[in-house]
Design brief:
Layout lengths: L10 H22 L9 H12 L3 H28 L3 E2 L11 E2 L3 H19 L32 H27 L3 H4 L2 H5 L1 H9 L5 E3 L6 H6 L3 E3 L2 H17 L9 H19 L3 H5 L1 H4 L8 H4 L2 H27 L8 H18 L3 H7 L1 H14 L12 E2 L6 E2 L2 E3 L10 H12 L5 E3 L16 E5 L3 H9 L5 H12 L19 H30 L4
Helix pairs in contact: 1-2, 1-3, 3-4, 3-15, 4-5, 4-15, 4-16, 5-8, 5-16, 10-16, 11-15, 11-16, 11-22, 15-16, 16-17
The structure holds uridine-diphosphate-N-acetylglucosamine and magnesium ion.
Length: about 550
């Protein structure tokens, strides 16, 4: 079961990639500050031109590779200490493994990500003083520092403020996640904290004249006539939407968790999809055209080449590329069979990073499209999250200890329970059963004798309301009835009942690694649908005229 730590196979790739990383990060500033002469090197000039067209992109790519290596090394260096300090947990789906696994290793990974973002600042927002280097002063120092609060003229103050607000939000979710890992904070407290933490982000969105309009669908045609406008300005409601979106993103990854690699895997796929979406907005063809790369082509000022839209997507890339690197490094440790757990720290942190990219890159509605599996999982979970149906501490699927086959976990409603199923909860379960997202067990399903005295139609158990269980239900995996009976018996009696030998679940064989692949498949499908909606359906539903 045990596998070798990823640090063991790092040497060769590090030797090949670290010099490349260094060049991507350092060449442009070195030339611009006059430390490197580019006048005789076509390739250096090409790098400079790329940097001119896409400010910050090359360092972002370089830093994302660095983030990968640094994360693999940092997690490896910290895992023993974390285990010794009590940050460890039992792997719920490995009943035969007795040793605990170090937990909260999302903390060093998140710290690496933050450090990389800090290091990025001077490479993106530096000002080349007049007369220095001279090939391509990106922003000119046209006034120096006079001590006024406006600061250095020519400096992209607003963009830096946007970037710093993202750092603030990230730090707040890092603290919240870590506190949750240490103190297991109650839902009613941890739910609203991200709403307050989003205030700096809302303010810079306002200062950046972020749009608050909602385009009314042009199809069906009567909708725009009925509303009387093509765009409805939501005003303050839009800020509420952003705030709730950031709260949703912060929590949504944590509730789609519990099998090895699923938390990091989903963050990795969403971040990569956002990167792809960002790249689609960059004039890559222009950048690669011989005409633009030729040394005789005059370097245009950034403002003439860089539209607002390109700038926003470059900003999003500066957050997402390092996240891809960090997630890939963490996944090397957390993939099945996991050598570390990431903890709530990582779940909240990654969710917030994705929210920052979407909100501050001004594509919050598109962002939501890339969270389709998380939105589904959240909506499905609502009856349990909001107390209509009891919510067990862990809702991850169960494992059959002999075959390692997974089957859906249950919430049970024994007779005389302190938390009986009420009307609303029952109605919600019946709707979800009709949609085939869950399986409900009734007294009559358990056969003669069991749950005697109850009406045959009484709901005695249901599969937990999560995407992971739904995938198993849809695939046709069945919970062994012995397990349902045992759970009912052990929850209705005060003293614990010994678990009987449970037969292997009926239906297709799905183990933890396979369920991870299936969940990642769903996430990738979600991204494909998101791209389809964004670039195809949106053109039909939201026509320009
Ligand atoms: C959330 C879920 C809970 C799920 C848990 C799993 C909700 C409302 N809460 O709770 O249903 O069971 O995440 O993370 O949906 N673990 C594994 N394998 C893994 C990852 C985690 O066995 O790959 C176990 C370990 O015992 C670990 C524990 O889950 O110690 C961490 O759970 P925690 O993050 O504290 O749970 P919550 O976030 O509260
Ligand atoms: Mg968690």
């Amino acid at each position: 079961m045990a596998r070798s730590p990823p640090t063991q196979s790092l040497g060769l790739s590090a030797a090949a990639l670290i010099p490349a990383t260094f060049s991507l990060v350092a060449i442009s500033p070195a030339v611009q500050w006059g430390w490197l002469d580019a006048s005789h090197s076509k390739s250096l000039q090409a790098v400079l031109r790329m940097d001119d067209l896409f400010p910050g992109l090359l360092p972002s790519i370089g830093f994302s590779i660095a983030a990968y290596f640094a994360t693999v090394v940092a997690v490896g260096a910290c895992r023993e200490t974390f285990g010794q300090r009590g940050f460890q947990g039992r792997d719920l789906l490995k009943p035969k493994v007795k040793e605990a696994i170090p937990e909260t290793l999302g903390l060093p990974a998140s710290c690496i990500y933050l450090l990389v973002l800090f290091l990025f600042i001077p490479f993106r927002y530096y000002v080349v003083p007049e007369g220095v280097g001279g090939l391509n002063p990106r922003t000119t120092n046209d006034g120096g520092w006079f001590g006024d609060l406006g600061g250095r003229r020519g400096f992209p103050h607003h963009e830096l403020a946007v970037y710093l607000s993202a750092l603030l939000s990230l730090l707040s979710s890092l603290v919240l996640g870590f506190c949750d890992d240490v103190f297991d904070i109650r839902w009613r407290f941890k739910m609203p904290i991200p709403i307050v933490a989003s205030i700096p982000m809302l303010l810079v969105y306002y200062a950046g004249q972020g749009g608050t309009g909602l385009v009314v669908p042009g199809w069906p045609a009567w909708l725009r006539t009925a509303v009387g406008a093509n765009v409805v300005d939501l005003g303050l409601l839009y800020y509420l939407f952003i705030s709730l979106l950031s709260t949703f993103c912060t929590h949504s990854i944590n509730i789609l968790a519990g099998i090895n690699g699923v938390e990091v895997g989903q963050a990795l796929i969403i971040a990569s999809s956002l990167c792809l979406n960002d790249f689609l907005y960059l004039p890559i063809r222009l950048a690669l055209s011989e005409h633009y790369l030729s040394p005789s082509h005059p370097i245009a000022s950034p403002s003439s080449l860089q539209s607002e839209l390109v700038g926003r997507h470059l900003f999003s890339l500066s957050l997402m590329l390092p996240l891809v690197g960090t997630c890939a490094g963490l996944l090397a440790w957390n993939r099945h069979p996991a050598l570390v757990f990431v903890g709530d720290t990582f779940c909240y942190f990654a969710g917030q990073a994705l929210a920052c990219a979407g909100v501050l890159g001004h594509f919050s509605k598109t962002l939501l499209l890339f969270f389709l599996p998380q939105v589904f999982n959240f909506l499905l979970s609502c009856p349990q999250l909001f107390g209509f149906v009891p919510c067990p501490r862990h809702r991850v699927p169960k494992v059959h200890s002999e075959t390692m086959a997974l089957y859906p976990s249950l919430v049970v409603f024994p007779r005389g329970s302190k938390r009986p199923l009420k009307m609303m909860g029952k109605g919600m379960l019946l709707i979800l059963e009709t949609l085939r997202f869950i399986k409900i067990y009734r007294a009559r399903d358990l056969g003669a004798g069991a749950e005697s005295g109850r009406d045959g139609n009484d709901i005695v158990a249901a599969t937990n309301l999560t995407l992971l269980n739904t995938i198993l239900v849809v695939a046709g995996v069945q919970v062994p009835l012995e397990d349902v009976k045992w759970r009912l018996a052990s929850e209705s009696l005060a003293s614990p009942v010994e678990q009987p030998s449970i037969p292997s679940p009926q239906g297709p064989y799905i183990d933890e690694a396979r369920l991870w692949r299936m969940t990642m498949g769903v996430q990738l499908l979600g991204s494909a649908v998101a791209f389809g909606v964004r670039y195809w359906a949106a053109a039909i539903v939201f026509p320009q005229t």
